[in-house]
Amino acid sequence: DGGITQSPKYLFRKEGQNVTLSCEQNLNHDAMYWYRQDPGQGLRLIYYSQIVNDFQKGDIAEGYSVSREKKESFPLTVTSAQKNPTAFYLCASSMDRYSGNTIYFGEGSWLTVV
Amino acid sequence: AQTVTQSQPEMSVQEAETVTLSCTYDTSESDYYLFWYKQPPSRQMILVIRQEAYKQQNATENRFSVNFQKAAKSFSLKISDSQLGDAAMYFCAYRPWMDSSYKLIFGSGTRLLVRP
Predict the structure, then answer these.
(1) Per CB distance under 8 Å, which residues of A are interface residues toward B?
(2) Are A35 and A44 in contact (CB under 8 A)?
(3) CA distances to A82, B52, B79, B99 from B16, in Å
(4) How far is residue B112's CA from residue B17's CA, in Å, rounded to a whole number?
(5) Residue B14 CB contacts under 8 Å (≥ 6 apart), including other chains
(6) Which of A33, A102, B14, B92 can pair with B107 through a Cys bridge, CB separation 3.0 to 4.6 Å?
(7) B113 near A CB under 8 A
């Protein structure tokens, strides 16, 4: 089945550690996104990528990094510089960069700092 | 900057009845897209309905319909014949036509409770 796969579903991070969240899509979409959701709030954009080997910062990129080496993959690294990383992270994709195309979401990953 | 406001943190509806969720947005753009997403307890964001701003006709998808008032910058979602499976968080989202990030701007959400 086509879709967006995020892993792991749950992840625990110790203080000072970097962790990487995986996002893979088999929809042949050009554009991919990472959003963060905090309890009781909407989603905020962390990073986005419109094509391979290119990505741009979103509204809350500090403390995060990404790569886009393959069209189907857009991993997110939460670095130790992110002071409050506990949140729900959603990966998304759309066919291309045109704004009329619907953005589809993965099932999300929970990150907790212990 | 564009903003999306959902003024109802929580709404409740009796099963089989109709409920309307409100959404207003602020933009200086004339062309854009609007979306309603549903987030059930599983937390996955599921597209419910979308509306192109250049279309005057309100979008409908089975039991879901919108009331799009462009001049008032209002985009409400009506759910008819509510079902227990409709219980979820509902997010209104705006996407500009011409924006280099092509990102979605979300409201804070409305939690919908469905009473059996």
Answers:
(1) 31, 33, 37, 40-45, 48, 50, 56, 58, 88, 90, 92, 94, 97-100, 102-108
(2) yes
(3) 45, 29, 10, 40
(4) 13
(5) B82, B114, B115
(6) B92
(7) no
DSSP label of A103: P
pLDDT tens digits, A66-94: 999 999 999 999 998 888 899 999 999 98
Q: Do B50 and A102 touch (CB under 8 A)?
A: yes
Reported residue count of chain A is 114
The string of pLDDT tens digits covering residues A41-54 is 889 999 999 899 99
Cβ contacts of B32 on chain A, cutoff 8 Å: 99
DSSP E strands in A2-100: the ranges are 4-7, 10-13, 19-25, 31-37, 43-51, 54-57, 64-66, 76-78, 87-94
